[in-house]
Amino acid sequence: MHLFSFRSPPYTGPLIKKMFETFATGLYSLDTMIELTDQWGLTNRYKKLIVRTTMHRVLSNPFFYGCFKFHGEIFEGSHQPLISKGLFDKVQEVLGERTKPLTRHRKFTYSGLIKCGECGCFICGSMFKNDRYELYRCSLRKRHIKCSQHKYINKSEINRQIGEQIKNLTINKMVYSLLMENIRSRNEEESKIHINGLEHWNRIEIHCEERISRLMDALSEGMINKEEFLQKKNEIITQKIEAKEKTRFHKTSVGAWHKYAENLIIKSSHIYEIFSEGDEADKKSLLLAIGENFRLKNCTVTFDLKPPYNFVEAVNKSSSNLCVMRGQGDLNP
Ligand SMILES: [Zn+2]
């Protein structure tokens, strides 16, 4: 671990945490992350910009959730974890998606993302008039199905239609208070769950410690060999870390709704901005993070929002109905 050494200046920690949290949203590509960290002033120890490979290495280093690997063995570090294992796992998930080769779809944002609403094939893009127009339609690959979706749609029109739906996530003051209220009332029921969770994971943590000490006895008495010991120990350490983390999670969860609500609101407010100003990779990452079931039929694109964004949209819609009822008209700019 020489990238951000143990003796790193104190500002590095929060920035690395911010980097994990930001990437975990799934809204940003690795390249955009590099730009962001540059803006935040995060550099390597030679005061140089972080490059793609470094970014990847840092984002997949278990060191930051309090562990380290040595000769394949996982050790619980004595250092304070910067991030939770849950956040680390989420980042690994997003990393997996990001580093998948985009193969032949690289050039076309919407190939491999939107399916034909009639036959279920992916739509495909083509360039026309010396690359001036990027047009899409059903790839008509399923020969045994007769599909009538032959008409092309312009990429700018797809952008416009998706943009319109994403605008529904822009949050105004009224929605802000409704969302906060809603999340708060849901959280009251949850606090009971956290108290039970805390007890449960505490017990597991203690149990893990007991198992490790029994395992050490077994090794010293020659009942198991070194290899069996290491394998079992790695398993238990992983469980113990999970338990520790769940305990921490439940402890901090009381009142965490506030942070969650604020985060969600901040994220949601940026979505339209990222979509309209980001590059192609950003657009695609963003759409994969917030939506699913992208379909094109009769030149109309539809999709479903994933949670919690579907919730934001629903609250937004109910608030605009409320405004109409009160004769205030549409509050959205
Ligand atoms: Zn089709």
The appropriate CATH architecture of the domain at 1-100 is: Alpha-Beta Complex
Mean pLDDT: 82
Number of strands: 8
Instruction: Describe the strand arrangement of the main beta sheet, using strand numbers.
Output: 3-7-8
* CATH homolog superfamily of the domain at 1-100: Putative Large Serine Recombinase, Chain B, Domain 2
Ligands, deduplicated? zinc ion
What is the terminal-to-terminal distance? 49 Å
Structural class: mainly alpha
* Number of H- or I-type helical stretches: 10
Q: Outline the biggest β-sheet.
A: 3 strands, mixed
Task: Give an overview of the whole structure.
It is a single chain. This protein has 333 residues and is mostly helical. It has a domain at 1-100: Putative Large Serine Recombinase, Chain B, Domain 2 (Hect, E3 ligase catalytic domain fold), CATH 3.90.1750. The chain has 10 helices and 8 strands. It has helices at 12-24, 30-40, 52-59, 85-99, 155-167, 173-220, 226-253, 256-277, 280-290, 309-325; strands at 67-70, 73-76, 115-116, 123-128, 133-138, 153-154, 291-297, 300-305. The protein has a 3-stranded mixed β-sheet. It has a 3-stranded antiparallel β-sheet with strand order 4-5-6. A two-stranded antiparallel ribbon has the order 1-2. The two termini are 49 Å apart. Bound molecules: zinc ion. The site of zinc ion (ZN) has 7 residues, from loops.
